[in-house]
UniProtKB/TrEMBL annotation:
Annotated source species: Neorhizobium lilium
The keyword Ligase is assigned to this record: no
Entry-linked SUPFAM superfamilies: Uracil-DNA glycosylase-like
HAMAP family: UDG
Repressor found in the keyword field: no
UniProt enzyme class: hydrolase
GO biological process, one term: base-excision repair, AP site formation via deaminated base removal
Keywords: Cytoplasm, DNA damage, DNA repair, Glycosidase, Hydrolase
General function of this protein: Excises uracil residues from the DNA which can arise as a result of misincorporation of dUMP residues by DNA polymerase or due to deamination of cytosine.
CDD domains: UDG-F1-like
GO molecular function terms listed in the Swiss-Prot or TrEMBL record: uracil DNA N-glycosylase activity
Protein name: Uracil-DNA glycosylase
Amino acid sequence: MTDSEVKLEESWKTALGAEFSDPYMGELRRFLLSEKEAGKRIFPKGSEYFRALDLTPLDAVKVVILGQDPYHGFGQAHGLCFSVRPGTRIPPSLVNIYKEMQTDLGIEPARHGFLEHWARQGVLLLNSVLTVEEGKAAAHQGHGWERFTDAVIRMVNDRCNGVVFMLWGSYAQKKAAFVDQSKHLVLKAPHPSPLSAHNGFFGSRHFSKANDFLISRGKEPIDWRLPPVADQ
């Protein structure tokens, strides 16, 4: 995968140029092509691999939320962690995110799981691995995406100031352990999965804490309230 082949928002394409020219990205591209040639269905579609970066330019990042893998069910993943397409059932972890937002900010839970409204305001909804095989969670781990998304986080850490990192669960916390807490606000809580949300995700108040921090840095807070979308 070379820089000239990649369709990507310009600030990220410039910042990550060295990654695209590195041999590991070529190996990743060959892996994805071989999987498709074998008849395997890959999510999200190719034009949405970098959707999180396309919607949230590097200089616009205010908040980073880290996920692990795309959803592996048909019609769910579209390139943003925790988000699903309009008309798709809201996943259990996102249901719990909405519950915490209601407790924290008094926001009634949305009737859909489409989070592009957040991304367009500067919330980088980044999965660690950007593709998955249908029906096989974690099928594409260990093929290079983790190295690429480490570079994304490193760019935010180095080139931005006053970003809020919402690290939910041990995986996200380990991945972003190098973030400079003298420059950024790092918020940690258990994952919002039904298996762990009651261990401290509920009551963490990350959404209000994030906005308080952004305001203290002279930035516009995030409007966490999601507008209605078609196909609810």
